Amino acid sequence: MAAARPTMGARYIDRDVIGLPEQVVNALDNAARRGHLVSVTAPRPAPDAPGKVWVRARFLAPNPGPTASPARVRLNRRRAAVATGVVAGTAVLAGLAYLVWLAVQALLAVWPVVAGALLVLFLLWLAAGRAGVCCAGLHCPGCKH
What we know:
Number of strands: 4
Helix content: 40-55%
């Protein structure tokens, strides 16, 4: 099994590989074919696992590549203004809807009192209209027609 030569400044990952001898050979062979395997210790019997072997392998760490600075984000002022207006308008409409909901809930809690007060006001209005100079279309002694 040929191991890849380490490059300057490369980072390594040390791993314990435990398994049946064929499994360990296959795993190390795959890593060597990809060029990730740097070194391997001699196989030893695995503790608490009869028939299995244990090796310590060193692999090359994946290279994330050159770090590029993030692209500059340009703010479109018109879109930002529209988005701000939409959010503000939605907040105002939600607040108004909540206030209407509160008013309806309060009215439903006291609707018998409100209905009674409106009935009394209506009856007072009718009584005031008949007692005045105008008879609202009915003939009475004070209207002279």
